[in-house]
Amino acid sequence: MTTRMRSEIAEQPAALRATLDALLPRVEEIGRVAAPTRQLLFIARGTSDNAAVYGRYLVETHAGRLASLAAPSVATAYRRKLDLGGVLAVALSQSGRTEEIVETLVWAGECGAVTVAVTNGGPDSPLAQAADLVLCTEAGEELAVPATKTYTTALAALAVLAVGIGAEVNIDDLRRVPDAVEKLIDDPGDLDAVVEGLAGRQGVVVSGRGLVFSTALELALKLKEACYLHAMGLSYADLLHGPIAVVDRDTPAILLGAGGGPTLPGTIALAERVRGAGAEAYAVGGGQELAAATTAALNGPDLPEWVAPLGLIVPGQLLTEALARRLGIDPDTPRGLRKVTQTD
Q1: Which of 35, 38, 88 is nearest to 65 (CA)?
Q2: Could you give the CA distance from residue 44 to residue 34 in angstroms, rounded to a whole number?
Q3: Which Pfam families does the annotation name (predicted)?
Q4: Which of 94, 205, 250, 285 registers the highest number of CB atoms within 10 A of its CB?
Q5: Calpha distance 208→257 (Å, rounded)
């Protein structure tokens, strides 16, 4: 049986190509709209919040702009007015219909921010209607509750946004993403071994750092949503400050890394520490050196660190879908979840 989630994972190369084709020609427009601003504020919840973490790291490390994550309750519950002059407020919502996110973006505009919507909900969605600039992704309809193609296309939109505000990157790296994702879908690595290693576990720690931290958070969320695992997503810097005590023979670690970059050596060292403590460690990406330090490994994309998260989550999505089926769970309709979540 092919699940909707598995089918939508397979649709990601086409969705990414369509999204990049639609948004890359708008780089100059993005630059003009963002010109009066000096820092970014990302507004999101759930999977979109994990995408926002990628956006934050990307603009700070490659565009030289301060960025932060909004607390929507400041706008919706406390109703406090802030001075957001010089701020580019970027709201992310797959549906474009999450009322809290729409309300917070409106609030940001009223506080003086230039507003941007990133959504798969189309230009007529409430979020798009509230924004000064709309970046619509081209994922098509997503039916499975766990987000896959709407997540990766949101990352693509944020990468284009970063280029528009002056990120010092090679744009050809972004154009290679769909092919890299296609390759990972065809060959994710030792998927069966990782599925079997997690099948009898109640919990898992998922860790990465820097630009890859967003992927750790997203994979942990997917394992919670679709496999009902107690999955903890952490930066490895935070993990080493105490929570590493939970990693033991009954609680393995999934460690994520780009093929290069300044955080990879620390990830390899963490894998060696986890294995040295008698626990299992599984790699996603990180090249041969990380794979050699772990129990089993999933492949990572052949992409530089700044765009690696667009591909790195894909083996994690495949792992989630396969593990859910192994556990007798329908990953398309996890218990207690709906496609559009409303918060007060």
Answers
A1: 38
A2: 19
A3: SIS
A4: 285
A5: 6
Span 214-227, mean pLDDT?
97
Spatial CA neighbour of 240 closest among 271, 211, 219, 214: 271
pLDDT digits (tens, 9 = 90+) for 66-109: 999 999 999 999 999 999 999 999 999 999 999 999 999 999 99
Q: How far apart are CA 76 and CA 92, in angstroms?
A: 16
Instruction: Return the ∠ at Cα 267 (arms to 261 and 272), rounded to 5°.
Output: 140
**Closest listed residue to residue 34, CA positions, set 154, 163, 206:** 163
Return all residues near 54 (Cβ < 8 A) that are at least 6 apart: 155, 158, 211, 214, 215, 309
Greatest CA separation for the chain:
54
Instruction: Dump pLDDT digits (tens) for 176-198.
Output: 999 999 999 999 999 999 999 99
How many degrees, rounded to 5, is the angle at CA 107 between CA 36 and CA 82?
70
Helices (H), the chain: 4-10, 12-23, 27-34, 46-62, 72-76, 99-110, 126-129, 149-164, 171-175, 177-186, 191-199, 213-227, 236-239, 264-276, 287-292, 308-326
Radius of gyration of the chain (CA): 19
Pair 117, 91: CB distance under 8 Å: yes
Helix (H, G, I), strand (E, B) or coil at 42: strand
Q: What are the distances in angstroms from CA 36 to CA 33, 54, 131?
A: 7, 23, 16
Helix, strand or coil, per DSSP, at residue 40: strand
Computed over every residue of the chain, the mean pLDDT equals 94
The Cα–Cα gap between 15 and 3 comes to: 18
Q: What is the pTM of this model?
A: 0.95
| Domains, in order of start, for the chain | 4-175 (3.40.50.10490), 183-326 (3.40.50.10490)
